C-alpha cells in the first residue's frame, strides 16, 4: 500500500488544480469569463492558468454573460471544450437564453450530431456576507431545464473529482460552487487527487439509523453538524450528499430512506418550487410504505435573498434542522 | 488631509493624453447602398458568376413559392418566405468556401439549400417532424435558429475557435433588422471585434419585424452605422442586387480570412410576402409599398442586366425555369410522403447517456404505445 502525504487544501485550490490538470491533459479545454485571466477570477479559482497556458486558453472576455456562453457554444461546435466562469450566481442570469434555448438542447435538436461539452462554473449560495445579488441559490432554474447536468460539490476532494468529470463530460454541466465552502480546508493530496467522480452518484456522508438528511453543497456541513448535535437528543441521523442534482440518484437516496423511515430535505434555495419539493415527491412516490412520517423540508424562506446582516435568519441552520427532525412523528414509535 | 486643506499645494495638471482607439472614418458605411447592376461596375462582373446567380435566384424563388404552397396543403406547419430576398440568400451561400460556416435564422432555409443542404431536410423544422433535419457538420450550416440573434455569438465563437486552431475558416451569420435590437446582436458584434474573429454579419433589412417597421426598431442613421461603435467596418448594399451583395460579401469574407476581423453588412431589401403564411400583412402595410418593391425585384434586375448584355436568351431563361421546376417537383413529391416518426426519438440524445429517470419515462411511453397498438388490433 502506498502512503500519500496528506496536505490540507481549500476547495478553491482543489478547483484550480482540477482546471489546471484538465487543461494540461486536453488542449481543447479553454477557460473563459470575466477577470479569469490576469486576476485569476474574483475568487482566484483560475489563478495562474493564463500564465501557464496563455491568454488564448484562459481568456478575459468582454463583460457580457450571454456573449460568453453564446461564443462558448460556437467554440464547442468547432470541437473545443469551453469551461465558462460566471462571476456570481445572480450574474449568470443574462446567459439564461443561451443556456436554455441552445446549450441544453443542441444535442437533442440535432439528433446527437452536435453535442456541446461545455462546463459552466457558477459560484452560488449565501453565508459570505455578500450584498444584494451575490448570494442566490439558483439551482432550481437549472434543474428545471432538461439537457443540463447540475452538479455541486461539498468537499475538497469532490470539488476536484466532480469538476474533472464535468469537463470530461460530453454534455453541458452547470457546476455550482458553494461560495462559502471555497475556503473550507480538508486533508487532500494534490499530487494524488482522488479519482474522477462519476456524475450522478450521491454519497452517504454519515451513517445513521433514525432519519435521513438529504442535502447538497453548502448545506452538507450544516447537516453534519446537526447530526452531531442530534446525538444529544438521541437521534442517529444519516446524511446523504446528493452531489449531483441532475442526474438524480434515486437509488442511493431511497435506499437510505428505506433504512431510516424518515427524511428531511435541507437546502438554502427557497422551499416553494425549490429542489426540496421534487426530492420529497420522489422519495414519497418510491418509499411511501417505508415512511413513518411525511418528508419535511428545511429551506430558505420564499423571499428575495436577504441583506447580509439578516442572512443568518434565512439560512437553514442546525436548530431549524433539529426542529424539523423533531417533527418526524417520533411518538408513533413508542 | 482633505482636498480643501490641500488647496494651497494643489497644481492642476491635464489628464493623460486622449485619442480615439481607432480612426472611425474608414469604418463608416457609404452614403448610398452599393449597387452593381445598372451601373458601370456591372461591366466588370464575371458573366459566369452572374449566370450562376441568376439560375440560383430562379430556383430560390420557386423554392419559396413551392414551400408556401405546401403550407396550404398542410404539408408544412409554417413557412417564413424569403421571396424578394433571394439575392441575399443566394449570395450568402455562394460567397463562402466549402470549409466556411453559415449561421442562418428561420427565414434562411433558402441560403441553407443554396449551400447544399437537402431541400427536404432543410424543411424538417418547419414541417415539424424534428427540430434540425440535417447534420450541421455535413455542409457546415448551423441549425436554423428561431430565438432572434442568438445564433450570432455562436458564429463568433466558432470563427474564434477556428482561428485558435489555425484553420482559415470564416463564419457568416444572418440576422433580420428586428434582430439587431436584441442584446445578443450587440454582444456578438462586440466579442467579434474585440477578438478580431473571422466572422461576417449580414443583416437583411427587409423593412419589417413581423409588423413593426424599422423606424420603431432603431434611431441609428442606418444599421450599418452600428458597426462603427464596435470598431468594425459597416457596409451598405442594395440587397436586391445579387451581384452587389455577392461582391460585398466576398470582400468581407476575404478580409476576415486574411485576419482583418469582422464586418457588418446591411442589405436593403424587402419582404414581399407576409411574415409567414399565418400572418396578415394588410394589417400593417399598404399594397403600394409592396408594388414599389416589386419594381425592384432581384430576379428581374439581374435578368434585365443579363439580357441587355446579351448574356441570357430565351433558351437560357427557359433552362433556369426548367431546373427550378424539376427541383419543385422533387420537393413536392418528397414532401407529400408522410415523414417517418418514432416516438422513441423523444428520449434519444437528451443526454449522451439517458438518465435513469428518462429510461423510466421512455418505458412508460412504450407501454402506452403497446396498449394503443393492441387496442387498434382488437
Ligand atoms: C427572442 C425572440 N423574440 C421574439 C421572437 C418572435 N419573432 C419571430 S420572427 C420575429 C420578427 C423578426 O424580425 P426580423 O429580425 O426583422 O427578421 P425577419 O422575420 O424580418 O426576417 C419575431 C418578433 C423570436 N423568434 N425570438
TrEMBL record, chain A:
Pfam families reported for this sequence: Transket_pyr, Transketolase_C
Keyword field: Oxidoreductase
Enzyme Commission number, as recorded: 1.2.4.4
Database matches in InterPro entries: THDP-binding, Transketo_C/PFOR_II, Transketolase-like_Pyr-bd, Transketolase_C
Domain Transketolase-like pyrimidine-binding: 9-184
Keyword presence, Oxidoreductase: yes
GO biological process, one term: response to nutrient
Cofactor(s), names only, from the UniProt record: thiamine diphosphate
Molecular function via GO: branched-chain 2-oxo acid dehydrogenase activity; magnesium ion binding
Enzyme class: oxidoreductase
Database matches in SMART domains: Transket_pyr (SM00861)
Ribosomal protein among keywords: no
Signal peptide annotation: none
Stored PANTHER family: 2-OXOISOVALERATE DEHYDROGENASE SUBUNIT BETA, MITOCHONDRIAL, 2-OXOISOVALERATE DEHYDROGENASE SUBUNIT BETA-RELATED
Protein's name according to its UniProt entry: 3-methyl-2-oxobutanoate dehydrogenase (2-methylpropanoyl-transferring)
Species the sequence originates in: Streptomyces cupreus
Higher taxonomy: Bacteria, Bacillati, Actinomycetota, Actinomycetes, Kitasatosporales
From TrEMBL, chain B:
UniProtKB keywords: Oxidoreductase, Pyruvate, Thiamine pyrophosphate
Compositional bias of kind Acidic residues: 369-378
Bias kind Low complexity: ranges: 357-368
Any one GO molecular-function label of the UniProt entry: magnesium ion binding
CDD domains according to UniProt: TPP_E1_PDC_ADC_BCADC (cd02000)
Source species, domain of life: Bacteria
Positions of the UniProt region annotated as Disordered: 1-26, 357-378
CC cofactor: thiamine diphosphate
Record-annotated Dehydrogenase E1 component domain positions: 67-342
Matching InterPro entries: Alpha-ketoacid_DH_E1_comp, DH_E1, PdhA/BkdA, THDP-binding
GO biological process: branched-chain amino acid catabolic process
Name listed for the protein in its UniProt record: Pyruvate dehydrogenase (Acetyl-transferring) E1 component subunit alpha
Organism the protein comes from: Streptomyces cupreus
